[in-house]
Amino acid sequence: MSNEFRLADRGRIDRDRPIRFRFDGGDYEGYQGDTLASALLANGIHQVATSIKHGRPRGIMAAGAEEPNALVQIERPFPEPMLTATTVELREGLQASGLPGRGQLSTGDDPARYDTMHAHCDVLVVGAGPAGLAAALSAARSGARVIVAEADTEFGGSLLGSGETLDRAPGTEWVRRATAELAACPEVRLLPRTTVFGHYDDNYLVALEHRGEQAHSRQRVWRMRAREVVLATGSHERPLVFAGNDRPGTMLAGSARTYLNRYAVRPGNRAVVFTTNDSAYAAAIDLADAGVEIAAIVDAREVVSTHWASLCIERGITIHADTAVVSTSGTDRVSSAHLCSLRSDGSRTPSVRQVVGCDLLLVSGGWNPAVHLHSQARGSLRFSEDIGAFVPEQDVRSVRSAGAAAGLFATSESLRSGAEAGRDAARAAGFDAEPGRLPRAEKAPVLASRSVWLLPSPADSDGSTRFVDLARDVTVADIRKATRAGMDSVEHVKRYTTLGTAHDQGKTSGTLSTGVIAEMLGRDVAELGTTTFRAPYTPVTFAALAGRDRGDLYDPVRVTAMHDWHVEHGAPFENVGQWKRPWYYPRPGEDMETAVLRECRAARESVGIQDVSTLGKIDVQGPDAAEFLDLVYTNMMSTLKVGRIRYGVMCTADGMVFDDGTVTRTDEQRYLISTTSGNAAGVLAHLEDWLQTEWPHLRVYLTSVTEQWATIALVGPDSRQVLSRVASGIEVGNDSFPFMSFRDGLVAGRRARVCRISFSGELAFEINVPWWYGREVWEALHEAGQPFGITPYGTETMHVLRAEKGFPIVGQDTDGTITPDDLGMSWAVSKKKTDFLGKRSFSRADTARTDRKQLVGLLPADENLVLPEGSQLVDTAELPEPPVPMLGHVTSSYRSAALDRGFALAVVKAGRDRIGETIYSPVGDRLAAVTITEPVFYDKEGARRDG
Amino acid sequence: MAPRTPGADLPEHPDWLWHSPDPKPSYDVVIVGGGGHGLATAYYLAVNHGITNVAVLERGWLAGGNMARNTTIIRSNYLWDESAGLYEHALKLWEGLEDELDYPLLFSQRGVLNLAHSLQEVRDGVRRVNANRLNGIDAEWLDPHQVAEICPILNTSPDLRYPVLGATWQPRAGIAKHDHVAWAFARALDRMGVDLIQGCEVTGFERVGDRVVGVNTSRGPIRAGKVALAAAGHTSVLADTLGLRLPIQSHPLQALVSELLEPVHPTVVMSNSVHVYVSQAHKGELVLGAGIDAHNSYSQRGAFHTIEREMTAAVELFPMFARAHVLRTWGGVVDVTPDASAIMGLTPFEGLYVNCGWGTGGFKSTPGVGWCYAHTIACDEPHPLNAPFSLERFTTGALVDEHGAAGVAH
């Protein structure tokens, strides 16, 4: 059995390019141009899946993204769950299987690549059916930059499936010419296979482009900013609610027409057509002309169109007016439709009048304009009684709906409204646009449709086989259960029944369910409205949205100018913000602790060298720079002399320490400030925030210069000698180059700014050179230090050295709840300044308490113990029942080479008053006794900084 | 863990869940806001304090705000004693709530992992675990190997841009079905004679001096012995009409779900620096959230780049999610205070009570809030558990700074 249901004489498939595929274990053949659904139908496969709740067989209902039933799992080329067979392009080697409403993720890594594209345009046209193409032509002819995005593999929309003529030629011929004209316009970008799935503020739209498994990037997300948008997104046909309306072989009438005309598929041998409007007649006529027996047309309206009736009579098709299909029979596929008159004959229970055998049941309950994007763009909707559906109430600014998306279903109307929308959009974008000549569409008088929600149901009194949402198996009975429980909002009923929450997000069931609820409650459809339309319009893979920002590109890796040297010398790295910082430099056989103890000894006893380039650096310039810095630091910066350096603390408005660093005054109106490595961007944002919103009158300019400088700390008693060997133009003696000052000169032949600052307590120099020379100068210093046993060290040793001196690290020893006074840094808080960030908060009752948590040192009674950082501190040697009062916690903890023991920094309630006392820390199963000390453990008198 | 069929967990309802009465002219207590907090408060007012002449006023549909929009995570592993006390009280109530309300809440104590990706996050995590244990809250610190045992689909490779260095683990944490929680409270309230009034927007207050004696609504004035605000971000809009400025800022917070998938994710994973939080709901959809949108807004929608960034984190941590699909995104409104902790207590106006600023903690705190807020209203003084969350703390400086421990970096 191969392509038994394929017609020889029509369609847009390429019969010269057969494609083999496998479905549910069976091997089949289709053609290039098929979807998985059309290929299955051509092979006579109607049942594709089973339903999620009741396990009922389900077939192919639609021919596009609105498909509620035909869920498949792709198995090859790579597993992907929960696609609809109607939107999967047939490709050689495709393997898929039907799903019962729930899919499987692959345990293997997705090998595909995903990309992101950015585009701007004057007019974005969403949808390339008759309305979209007409809009694009109007706009493109004006010279506007136009993007046309179409979800389908080819342009044409409804014209591909309807077989209509334009200017008495096949509509697809006009599509071909329109597409060719657009493609020839240099300012036009055509995006087939691209679904616009989100419409955000200010016409920011996002789309997903499918490029196939073999493409360099499988899918691309387009981020588009459009001046004007034309939504020509078409419409979705609505099913009807009768007993057994889910049997395979039941299909939307327009979709059946598409399978016939576009894919050359005969979807059945004998069809019953059940409709509430004229559109299904066209499908019936096309099918009849293609050799499908139309057993009956069942029309819910009392009066049917004479135009269509005469066409039916010509073909011997019987029309049952004012009649409904109320139930079906069949096992795996529909085998008959049961008809019932809708005419009120006085009897309360209608009865089945006629049973008509069929293997195909076409339904049309009207058409829902695809208002999703309009609604996402915050456009309001109104219920149109004429078409029995929600339509855009009015256009949103710079967004126009056209064609079926605006409720204009006739092709002539689509063309006209599209051309006008394209013209108006181009004009609004500043172009001189005309609608141009439009092709003439076939004209057929259209009778009003009849809105039908709940049908009489002699065979299904409780409604348990009348499906409103096929995708979620939600029936009339389920909805009645919700309304009987007191729910009278569509949102509640949706949540109660899961209506509209499946993969299709209610594309076929949304309006239908509102109608059913309204009828049950005796309320207006218009008043009940819809649930909210949300992005994405169709499901989008996580990976497509992640794009390239994965793996190493998840977040930029920032490295210093000396990074390769650190790698060559075996340093493991610590992530500090986006930076990679050398953690320590183990020698062969050393573990971390041994290496760090060795590095610490070198810095204290001879000389160490550290790459500190990652510290944030902000250039602060302007006539008001001094005043500005006085406002953002707790201490006074305006009195700093040019050439001098001061340590500074920044607080947030609540008085809590936010960041710290050095402030270097290089000129009367110019400072260079440093920040912590991880918080550089945060500090700049904080400063700009205050500058721009609170003090816009200050003439101050901030520039991040972190990456302009490579910075090397040369630390230890021998650092002066090492520096003197490579520096020129700099007097390195203590008197000529005092602590907290800087000198400009040459280091290793390169222009350098050398600062005398110390984060270790030792004599130290911080050498700043242009980034480009970082490694060269580093190597020169390393070479010059060889006679002294110069030792490179990383962040861990830096942490130990500063902790031995009681220097806190913001973000480690503080957590946003610590004031400068809590750190014992009242000396850094100006008493003279009238105002600065945080000042007012220091006088608040709680902030002024003297028993706040304060930074102290801890010495474990067990000298070998290094308390785990994050350990809590309690008062008692034995733990009482929880909750146990906590005194504070260990913020930093190390083994010290200088002290030859473990030590820690901690914040402890009223800690400064408790120095000398013993408290306890739960470590594992025991309580470790610790003594509270001053936070400075080493060189308390500060004798070592001058060497 | 077999997935559950959509809708299959609901009990048959021959009876009503709730009615929709018209407002009466007067009530002992009017609660403004028919979300989880408003409903839970009314419930404990009735059950703990015998006060049932109560109306819960909801401007939209019942529990249609953040209660319908959150990612349903429940945990109590907060850092500070004050927060831990309240959230743990809530968690203990959660543990009995399904029985008490006789309704399937799908409360699943599948545990929560909070991942650490930097040495500082390790310190913070260890600190929080130690604090939790001393506060009597179940908590463990796990190394990456233990993390992988609990959640095998999580990428714990050291090659990750920000490798998982460890995680805190609260076994009693989990998820529950948000809508069911609201409906369960509503059903109980309806049976106790509490009026749940939807489509009734409060527009202002009736005052006699500094005493609030009623509310003006879109459905007319309603007199009240006491008025309790529980309107999340809109609480500040209401308080503004009295000249009372509340220190909360409202931001959009987006969430999303995938389609239904066979069960793969056994727990809840949260990460602050590879920013995403993920669970797999009972039906099988992955439920994800991440950062708030930076701008202030009351619109229940955010910007798309926030979603995209969240997806990068999701596939970093869970490579197998690559071909899962985003099915639906939506937005709620998080009301954030300067210290990322809530405000609950008395106001300068007699007979007016305030509960807001829950940020991302609203859902998990629901029964705890109801319990404490009901006490505050009935006794005219805060319950000891919510006393630290007074409005005065922004004057005294006695803040409860939970920026570090919240699931979302504010």
TrEMBL record, chain A:
<keyword id="KW-0560">Oxidoreductase</keyword>
<dbReference type="GO" id="GO:0000166">
    <property type="term" value="F:nucleotide binding"/>
</dbReference>
<dbReference type="InterPro" id="IPR028896">
    <property type="entry name" value="GcvT/YgfZ/DmdA"/>
</dbReference>
<dbReference type="Pfam" id="PF08669">
    <property type="entry name" value="GCV_T_C"/>
</dbReference>
<dbReference type="GO" id="GO:0046653">
    <property type="term" value="P:tetrahydrofolate metabolic process"/>
</dbReference>
<dbReference type="InterPro" id="IPR013977">
    <property type="entry name" value="GcvT_C"/>
</dbReference>
<dbReference type="GO" id="GO:0005737">
    <property type="term" value="C:cytoplasm"/>
</dbReference>
<dbReference type="InterPro" id="IPR041117">
    <property type="entry name" value="SoxA_A3"/>
</dbReference>
<dbReference type="Pfam" id="PF17806">
    <property type="entry name" value="SO_alpha_A3"/>
</dbReference>
<feature type="domain" description="GCVT N-terminal">
    <location>
        <begin position="562"/>
        <end position="833"/>
    </location>
</feature>
<dbReference type="Pfam" id="PF01571">
    <property type="entry name" value="GCV_T"/>
</dbReference>
<keyword id="KW-0547">Nucleotide-binding</keyword>
<dbReference type="InterPro" id="IPR023753">
    <property type="entry name" value="FAD/NAD-binding_dom"/>
</dbReference>
<keyword id="KW-0520">NAD</keyword>
<protein>
    <recommendedName>
        <fullName>Sarcosine oxidase subunit alpha</fullName>
        <ecNumber>1.5.3.24</ecNumber>
    </recommendedName>
</protein>
<feature type="domain" description="FAD/NAD(P)-binding">
    <location>
        <begin position="122"/>
        <end position="374"/>
    </location>
</feature>
<dbReference type="InterPro" id="IPR006277">
    <property type="entry name" value="Sarcosine_oxidase_asu"/>
</dbReference>
<dbReference type="InterPro" id="IPR042204">
    <property type="entry name" value="2Fe-2S-bd_N"/>
</dbReference>
<dbReference type="Pfam" id="PF13510">
    <property type="entry name" value="Fer2_4"/>
</dbReference>
<comment type="similarity">
    <text>Belongs to the GcvT family.</text>
</comment>
<feature type="domain" description="SoxA A3">
    <location>
        <begin position="465"/>
        <end position="548"/>
    </location>
</feature>
<dbReference type="InterPro" id="IPR041854">
    <property type="entry name" value="BFD-like_2Fe2S-bd_dom_sf"/>
</dbReference>
Automatic annotation (TrEMBL), chain B:
<keyword id="KW-0547">Nucleotide-binding</keyword>
<dbReference type="InterPro" id="IPR001763">
    <property type="entry name" value="Rhodanese-like_dom"/>
</dbReference>
<dbReference type="InterPro" id="IPR006076">
    <property type="entry name" value="FAD-dep_OxRdtase"/>
</dbReference>
<keyword id="KW-0274">FAD</keyword>
<dbReference type="GO" id="GO:0046653">
    <property type="term" value="P:tetrahydrofolate metabolic process"/>
</dbReference>
<feature type="domain" description="Rhodanese">
    <location>
        <begin position="29"/>
        <end position="73"/>
    </location>
</feature>
<keyword id="KW-0285">Flavoprotein</keyword>
<dbReference type="InterPro" id="IPR036188">
    <property type="entry name" value="FAD/NAD-bd_sf"/>
</dbReference>
<protein>
    <recommendedName>
        <fullName>Sarcosine oxidase subunit beta</fullName>
        <ecNumber>1.5.3.24</ecNumber>
    </recommendedName>
</protein>
<dbReference type="GO" id="GO:0008115">
    <property type="term" value="F:sarcosine oxidase activity"/>
</dbReference>
<dbReference type="GO" id="GO:0000166">
    <property type="term" value="F:nucleotide binding"/>
</dbReference>
<keyword id="KW-0560">Oxidoreductase</keyword>
<dbReference type="Pfam" id="PF01266">
    <property type="entry name" value="DAO"/>
</dbReference>
<keyword id="KW-0288">FMN</keyword>
<comment type="similarity">
    <text>Belongs to the SoxB family.</text>
</comment>
<dbReference type="InterPro" id="IPR006278">
    <property type="entry name" value="SoxB"/>
</dbReference>
<keyword id="KW-0963">Cytoplasm</keyword>
<dbReference type="GO" id="GO:0005737">
    <property type="term" value="C:cytoplasm"/>
</dbReference>
